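Notes from hallway chat w/ T.B., transcribed later so I don't forget. T.B. wanted the structure written out for a chain they're using in a teaching module, and asked if we could keep both sequence and structure tokens in one place. Agreed to drop them here.
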Amino acid sequence: TMSRLLTDGVDAAQVPAARGVPGSEISMVEALWMATAGGAELLGIDAGVIEQGRFFDAVAIDTARAGAALRAWPEIDDEERIAEKIVRLVTPPDIAMVWVAGRRVAGTEFSG
């Protein structure tokens, strides 16, 4: 979201052509990579990717929970769009399970 604001510019005192920083927008996939695998790589940590031998910290999101704002529509949502919805719309009740260091520490089942 911030990269989009930087790209478009928010200074109403500037003429539209002078606002923003062209080329600064990143996709949700790029942002998610930076927050997971990219950040782990930068820090030299074996994490951020689901792969044997790596740390496994994860959450399972229930996209079918009754009353949830988050809804995945397989017929129109691709994986990138579902990931964006999770990042933007998930709330604590949507988190069905949590794993830390490969051990489940919370949750037991999905509603849907």
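Follow-up for T.B.: DSSP finds three helices and three strands in the chain. Might be a good example for the class.
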